[in-house]
Amino acid sequence: MVEENDGKKTFKSLHVIVIVSVLLPVFTLCISYIVGFKLEKISSSFVPFVSDTGDTRPNSSIFTFGLSLSGVLTLVIITIRYYQVEYILLETKTQSSWINQFSLVSGLTLVFGEFIVAAFQISNIKAVHFIGAGMHFGGAAMFCATQCYFTYKSSKKKCQITFVVRALSTAIMTASSIVFGVFMIPSLNKYNRKGRNVGQTFEWLLVSSQLIFMLTFLNEFRELEIEFRLSKINNLQDADEESKRLVNIASFTFSKTYQRID
């Protein structure tokens, strides 16, 4: 929802972005799997890896399109969250900005990795696909860990449900990443396809915990508004200090449970 008033644009209902960013990969992977299974491109004798659902045509097109859109929405969420935390740090005069910057870099890494995974199928360019997967899962783990830190520091109640869910999701994500990585070793590959489906199971658990983590932003984004102020400056030298602060074009309204980071 967008409201315009005197050169200002206010964006509301930002929680819709969170909902769509989670539902989009779910539907993408389900549709890709169903199409591949119906066309006998995906075997029913073992649980497929996530990448298997988009490895062959035509389901690869669905896979690439859906994950690319999901990556764009995830990028929007990460950017908004970065400026939200920066605003809180500025208001409370807290020196934790480097952690927020690290979180932003981690978020950009996971998004870029998702783009690589979507664009380069595993059967075509395996090395590039694996690099993208490593960037995505590694970046996701670091981003979620830093967000857990900010959630813990900014919550009035340290055992708040949001923090608990985020912490558990991050722990499951990290453990699943380790197990998944170990069972991708060639000598242990026999326990994956046509075996006990160990690697596939932990990869799906990894993806699921990541999506659950993203859902935890739902309440915060529901109570969040972004206001953009548009102004024209004819002579920068004659402008007052307030007008010169062009970077300060957005203001936020937050939930009262997120007021300071000590």
Mean pLDDT comes to 81
Distance between the termini: 33 Å
Helix content: 55-70%
Taking strands numbered 1, 2, ... along the chain, how are they ordered across the largest sheet? Answer: 1-2-3-4
How many extended strands? 4
Structural class: alpha+beta
Overall 3D geometry? globular
Return Rg in Å.
21 Å
Describe the sheet with the most strands.
4 strands, antiparallel
Low-confidence stretches: 242-252, 254-260
Membrane topology: Multi-pass membrane protein
Organism: Hydra vulgaris (Hydra)
Protein name: DNA damage-regulated autophagy modulator protein 1
InterPro entries: CWH43_N, DRAM/TMEM150_Autophagy_Mod
Task: Give a written overview of the molecule.
Keywords: Membrane, Transmembrane, Transmembrane helix. Pfam families: Frag1. It is found in: Endomembrane system. It comes from Hydra vulgaris. Its main location: membrane. By secondary structure, this protein is α+β, with helices and mostly antiparallel strands. Helices cover 61% and strands 6% of the residues. It contains eight helices and four strands. The protein has helices at residues 15-38, 59-92, 97-119, 126-154, 161-182, 198-215, 218-222, 241-244, and strands at residues 2-5, 8-11, 225-229, 250-253. A four-stranded antiparallel beta sheet has the order 1-2-3-4, with no helix packed on it. α1 runs antiparallel to α2 (59-92). The radius of gyration is 21 Å and the shape is globular.
